[in-house]
Amino acid sequence: MEQSEAELKEKVIEAIKKVYDPEIPVDVYELGLIYDIKIFPIHNVYVLMTLTSPSCPSAESIPVEMEAEIRAIEGVNDVSIELTFDPPYSTEMMSEVAKLELGFM
Q1: Average pLDDT by consecutive 10-residue portion of the chain (105 residues)?
Q2: Residue 40 half-sphere exposure, CB side, CA atoms within 13 Å?
């Protein structure tokens, strides 16, 4: 059965939640590093994301790991990950889960 865009987006979010910033015990989704997820026709996935800082030591590995997790989803055709630092990351972007985990609340 063909999965809907909404179902595929949920699976993409689940895959992204498997990726952690090595320095922080919280996944990149809960950290608020994901700005946008789009599903285009023929199950092409586009993710717009940032990093905690432009000099983040994991700048190379996080997008690569995330792309691999998304590509592993059945039915995904292609994956495009775009990095941006606009707007710059701030701790306000974290979910309440992440803020609790890291002691911000």
Answers
A1: 85 97 90 96 95 83 96 96 94 94 87
A2: 9
